[in-house]
User: What shape does this take?
Amino acid sequence: MIKSTREDRIFNIINISILTLFFIIVLYPLVYVLSASISDPLLVAQGKMWLYPKRITYEGFERVLRHKELWMSYRNTIFYTISGTIINLLLTLTCAYALSRKDFVGRKFFTLLFVFTMYFSGGLIPTYLLVKSLGFYNTIWSMIIPGAVATWNIIIARTYFQTSIPIELKESAEIDGCSNTRLFVSIVLPLSLPIVSVLALFYGVGHWNAYFGAFIYLSNRKLFPLQLILREILILNQTMDFMSSSDVETMIEQIRIAEIIKYSVMIVSTLPIILVYPFLQKYFVKGVMIGSIKG
Assistant: This one.
């Protein structure tokens, strides 16, 4: 057993202290929002609630959850997230694998085309006209197809395939008569769970938080995602009630309701992603580290 020196102990203490400080900095906003969502909004506004809930009330959640269109938008967002992520992974991984193969003719040219789109795009109006001409306007596909592939994620996945999958493994499979499709599905993908999990998390969070596309491409409220409905609950409805109120007590009550709904909306919109993240954390950390070291 190696005995730690005095310098090692000092180094460990400093490291643990810094990590603890960062942990508190990251954890405190989460605890504060959770506590504020079930606390009296007047105490929150007065700064009397800074960590633990005070005068616990679930009025904010009751007001948010009984909104008629909330559950419909939840269903839409879950569909957009799952189907969109599957399409994202399918296109990104297959494209990245093709670009990682040295025997792929023209791979440098196609890589250059993909990288070009990172710096130059058509802009909002041409994109809108394209989506409309393809018949995607006011359909579920307008929330999935326009962002089906992210160039940066293709580059990350390509780098992973090039540096983490041994070329000898590919050559052995080809000698045994394995086709490119079988090689990709049966060998490459099972060995690429870290990068697949990282990309799934990136794409999933992006779809879950997406709302700008709904502003532009959707007019049917039955297709609205969760973030758009929550925005209406938080801003539009409360602002209209506030502006239409002439009585001082009514205005104060509207402000109180707006405050308590604000924190409840944060919990409703972020809780599913927070619950999913721990299951992908080990793959997420491994995938990011492998990409950063070998890329």
Remarks:
- The two ends are 36 Å apart (CA to CA).
